[in-house]
From TrEMBL:
UniProt cross-references to SUPFAM superfamilies, sorted A to Z: Phase 1 flagellin
Any single biological process term in GO: bacterial-type flagellum assembly
GO cellular component: bacterial-type flagellum hook; extracellular region
Gene that this sequence comes from: flgK
Protein species of origin: Actinokineospora globicatena
GO molecular function, one term: structural molecule activity
Family the UniProt entry places it in: Belongs to the flagella basal body rod proteins family.
InterPro entries the UniProt entry points to: Flag_bb_rod_N (IPR001444), Flg_bb/hook_C_dom (IPR010930), FlgK (IPR002371), FlgK_helical (IPR053927)
Domain Flagellar basal body rod protein N-terminal: 7-37
UniProt subcellular location: Bacterial flagellum; Secreted
Protein known as: Flagellar hook-associated protein 1
Flagellar hook-associated protein FlgK helical domain: residues covered: 103-332
Length: 460
């Protein structure tokens, strides 16, 4: 073995330990960088030539030729990364679903001293006041005012739900714009990673950026991720490619312009290039679609049911009585939806308080109408059912969001333990590389001294 072999061994050690120090510094520098995956230096010893030849066959007592860096690997767990994407997608869906339901619950404003239930109670009390004093114009006027308050509250609820629908649809459009931008970014990073690996240069940081973009896209769409032989990633939505290699496709929001048309013409995601329906949306987009096509229209239908029950019961009951003039009662309310319901008359004399056409100041019918609040299938029962239903839905959505948040945090922590930067561990690695570098430098210095003695001092 050449006497200069020791210098080469020490040199390879110096280079390797220096690269290890630089890598530890890179890890420490990115300890707080979102999506950064810790990297580790992989090394192997350098042996003799694998090809047998006279001048290339090492001495059987050869100590090797040093060390070499074989790769710089990302400490990545494919299973854990898949769990992170899956749990983040579920968290985006449960959080969005909870937000939609909480906004709907605010429309009810129950329990409250001025909510619809309190106004209905006041309305029935107004009928009782008229029954007690049928000839009092003030009681009759007050009754119509209370009826108008109920109608206005139902009108406002319908308008609020329509407004929420418009805002959520705009949110979905913005969400789809984010999806299209993220898909383009992922396709670009796909191309960069593949080119970098083909050129034999490190693509670790690019891969981190790509994984972050893929996670965001999964949260937004619920798309499924697969990896190709060239390490490019593919995101599919309902079996169709959203991102494949360096190519991405755009989505658009169509139909369901307003809440009134949502039932017959639901909001739909479509592929821009083929104008066909994009199925299988999950994550935030899927939750928004559910809110637009199911939750909000259903809640509006529930308020419509209250309005219809109120109009039907009051008008039916008023038609059974007689006015102060002895005429049969007419309609006090008009409209059968929350948006259209209103008081049909401004004349207090139209209230058919009497149960008999010959008793102008009788209050028997008004007394019967005062008991409509407890009528089976009446507006109060329908409304109380709606309030209980939205309360249970919000509670269930809150529990789901809280549970999913806990699970997501646990998975993130598990991934961080595997792939995140541990400063204590990196400091330990730095000390190890530093001491190894100092030892290699000492080896080189010692070999240099030995060669100096051999070359310059032999025979002196």
């Amino acid at each position: 073995m050449s006497s200069f072999n020791g210098i080469n061994t020490a040199l390879t050690a110096l280079r390797t330990q220096r690269q290890g120090l630089e890598l530890a510094g890179q890890n420490i520098a990115n300890a707080g960088t979102e999506g950064y995956t810790r990297q580790r230096l992989e090394t192997s010893s350098i042996g003799g030539s694998p090809v047998a030849a006279f001048w290339s066959t090492p001495n059987k007592f050869s100590t090797g030729q040093g060390v070499q860096v074989t790769s710089v690997n990302r400490l990545q767990d494919a299973y854990m990364d898949a769990r992170v994407r899956s749990e983040h997608e579920r968290k985006a869906a449960t959080d969005t679903n909870h937000d939609v339901l909480v906004d709907v619950e605010r429309v009810y404003n129950e329990p409250s001293d001025n909510g619809l239930q309190a106004q209905l109670t006041d309305l029935w009390s107004g009928f009782a006041d008229v029954a007690d004093n049928p000839g009092d114009l003030g009681s009759r006027t007050q009754l119509l005012t209370r009826a108008q308050s109920v109608a206005s509250t139902l009108n406002a609820a319908s308008a609020e739900l329509a407004g929420q629908y418009t805002e959520r649809r705009t949110q979905l459009v913005n969400n789809v714009n984010d999806i299209n931008a993220a898909a383009k970014q992922l396709a670009s990073l796909n191309e960069a990673v593949v080119r970098a690996k083909a050129a034999g240069v490190s693509a670790n940081e690019l891969s981190d950026q790509r994984d972050t973009a893929a996670l965001k896209l999964t949260e937004l769409t619920g798309g499924q991720l697969t990896r190709g032989a060239d390490d490019s990633v593919t995101i599919t939505l309902g079996g169709s490619n959203l991102v494949s290699g360096s190519t991405s496709r755009d989505l658009k929001v169509t139909n369901g312009a307003d809440i009134a048309s949502a039932g017959a013409d639901p909001v739909t995601l479509k592929w821009v290039d083929t104008d066909t329906v994009a199925t299988g949306a999950g994550g935030k987009a899927g939750a928004l679609l559910n809110g637009l096509n199911t939750v909000l229209p259903d809640q509006l239908a529930r308020f419509d049911k209250v309005a219809n029950a109120l109009t039907t019961t009051i008008n039916t009951a008023n038609a059974a009585g007689f006015t102060k003039a002895g005429a049969a009662g007419g309609a006090l309310m008009s409209g059968t939806t929350a948006a259209t319901i209103k008081v049909a008359t401004t004349n207090p004399a139209d209230i058919a308080a009497s149960a008999s056409g010959t008793q102008a100041l009788g209050g028997g019918n008004a007394d019967a109408m005062a008991r409509l609040g407890s009528k089976s299938g009446g507006a109060d029962e329908v409304y109380r059912t709606n309030v209980a239903d939205i309360g249970m839905r919000v509670r269930a959505a809150e529990q789901a969001a809280t549970t999913q948040g806990t699970i997501t945090n646990q998975v993130d922590s598990a991934r961080s333990a595997t792939s995140g930067v541990n400063l204590d561990e990196e400091l330990t690695s730095m000390i190890t590389y530093q001491r190894s570098y100092e030892a290699a430098a000492k080896v080189m210095s010692t070999v240099d001294s030995m060669l100096d003695t051999l070359i310059n001092r032999m025979g002196v």
